[in-house]
User: Fold Beta-glucuronidase C-terminal domain-containing protein from Orbilia javanica.
Amino acid sequence: MGLQHLLPSTILSLLCVNILFITESQAQLGNSAVINISPTLSNAAAASTMDSSFLGYSLEHNAVPNFAKSQIMVNLMNIWKSKTGVLPSVRIGGAAMDKTTYVPNFRTQPVMWVATPASEYWVGPSYFTLVKNYFPSDTRITFGLNLVNSTGNWSNSVQFAVEAKKNIPQVDLFEIGNEPDLYVGSNQRKKGWTGKEYAEEWKFVANRVKEVLPNAQFQPAVFASSLKDGFDLSSLIAAGINRNQYNIPSYSLHFYPQSACSSIPNLNNLVDHSLLGQLLQKFNPEIAAAESSGSRFTLAESNSVSCSGFNGVSDTFASALWLVDYALTAATKNIERIYFHNGPTTPYSLFIPRAASGLKAGIRPISFGVYFLAEALALPAQGSTTKFLVSPLSVPDDQSDIVVYGLYSNKVQKPDLDVIGTTTFVYTTAIPTTRAIVHTDKSQTLISVSTKMIIRSVSTSTRSSTSTRIVTVTKSTNTTKRTTVRMTSTTTRSSVSSGKTTIWRVTLVSTKTTTVTVPTTTQSRSTSRTVITSLSRSTFWTSQRTTITKTVERATPLLSTSYTTYTTNRAVTSTNTKATIKPQPTDIGDFPMNDGIFLARAVILNLSPHNTSDARVLSCRSCAGPSPAGYGSTGERSSTSVTLKGFQPNHRLKLIRLRGPGLNAKSGITVSGIIFNEDTGTLKNTAVPESVNVDKTGAVGFRISASEAVLLVDEKVV
Ligand SMILES: *[C@@H]1O[C@H](CO)[C@@H](O)[C@H](O)[C@H]1NC(C)=O
Ligand SMILES: *[C@@H]1O[C@H](CO)[C@@H](O)[C@H](O)[C@H]1NC(C)=O
Ligand SMILES: *[C@@H]1O[C@H](CO)[C@@H](O)[C@H](O)[C@H]1NC(C)=O
Ligand SMILES: *[C@@H]1O[C@H](CO)[C@@H](O)[C@H](O)[C@H]1NC(C)=O
Assistant:
């Protein structure tokens, strides 16, 4: 689903849901911006997937022989593929498609211009061989057919289509007619010929092509985007040019933000982000129409300035920054692809294939923008099936020159928040491998699926327990005590006198002190406390499944399928450099701990204009002339300190810069140090990225100069 289906108010609320906003930029900090990007994409369905072959090259039929005499185009295409895994698509036709006649017995050369009876291009059979042999076999080619010349009910265009499809295996789509919305203005059709008449003619030709090639796929419209007189996609779809009737993977319109035919192109306007947004708005109903009929919307011819480009604008570093901003904005609108138009010597060409018209072969500044985009879309690993979702962006009011795009991996994954320690594990894992081998007449597909157990994390915990015991001890003792004892003795005496007997009883009382022994019992209580400390370690495992699909071209036709499954036991050593202790929630704030669609990359553009006055970089080897002198910006080149929050805490990011001496520069441009070989279009070296650390709150800081682009890559989000 594309954003353009939604009402403006819904888009606003979506922007908030995706939380890509810039909180503030405080004046007292000078040039600084604090930017919050949502670490995860909560509404992945609302974001657009950016195609790995987002970039395409567009050429005129008659220019193909010039391009094919040099390896530069194929080498540039292969650099893109080495990063993204897919070749850029190629569209061949342009305005020349409506001047082309297929001449089966014309054998002297692939294409020739003839002046009489009418100015046209003759194309012979060797044209097909040339196209087939020049482009790699996995190139997808869109091939243009003549709609203007209706002689014999367009039988020549139908024959051209049939022969092209038969002889060029890379042909994928057909276009029929270039910019038909301009036919009346250029006297190719009579006044009053509208989108309605176009639709009838298009269907007539497409039906005849379909009779011979039932599986033919078409890319209709090909409008110059005037969007008048019924030349719009809703009208076309209503007129029957739709998926119900034809194989239509995509509709194409053309876009140039400036024109060299009707005004004087302006370098500053090229890097004006809000102007770009306004210009692209007119495509919203067209994108919606294409999608609602089940097709995609493509800009199959585009560049900075229409009518071949403009020296001093199209061939400057400004065009590289523009290309990056334009591609990412278009991707957020769910535009499928942009094909950049090239002529053998035109000012807007991305490169000059070989010396001609006083120009030398070479790589133009805009191609550095293409390389930067390839780094932004680079696969996290070879064979990876990851695609990147591009989140809508927003520009802060007071930092309107800073533009930010978030690229999210479409794979739902766990956050990786482990922070401390290094541990090496050796374990044995069973790796079941199923290999399906399908032999077909053309190609062989190998699919291998492997599963391995990997350690996600190890956590160590310490537990203490305390126990208390009370013991009672009983003790007996004898104590001695002194005591006084009273003793009595009684004696009886008698005497006789006078016949009377008297009897006395005498009682003697005496006291005596003595020592006695007294037994005693005492009880005593004693408390004992024991502390037991135990250490435990738990290991969390996760299984990782890898599917690798490989297609190999076969020479000999074969038709059979076989599967083998086997399991091997392997000892695996894994060093977990970020390991054992989970950060405290207080450290990482509200960073999500759950599985999600995580931020993998961010592109930040500082589009504040800066010009150089260094005359040495105002010209380029393949440029027609230097940028005018005397436009150097005064004062030091400004830079902005950016704090960007949304990456995973404690990760280390790769930082890649698209740099040039100034917007007006034509040389001295690089992407983290890369240098092109201007004779071949290959790279002389590889990029040397900087690296920056994300702090424990998920924030990363870096500086970005005026007129510069930065790409941040978290290689752990795959
Ligand atoms: C139109 O096509 C016919 C062949 O069908 C060709 O002979 C003629 O020259 C073409 N006219 C123009 C103006 O290209
Ligand atoms: C062109 O097509 C129309 C409609 O199908 C048909 O009537 C006419 O005979 C055709 N003319 C030629 C030259 O094939
Ligand atoms: C205390 O005295 C008694 C009687 O003489 C004797 O049996 C006992 O063992 C004595 N106890 C101690 C702890 O001396
Ligand atoms: C940069 O230089 C170009 C000429 O190359 C000029 O048109 C443009 O206005 C200059 N821009 C700024 C911001 O100085």
User: Anything to note?
Assistant: Residues 267-268, 312, 609, 611, 627-628, 631, 633, 663-664 surround 2-acetamido-2-deoxy-beta-D-glucopyranose (ligand 4) (CB under 6 Å). The chain has 13 helices and 31 strands. The chain has a mean pLDDT of 86.
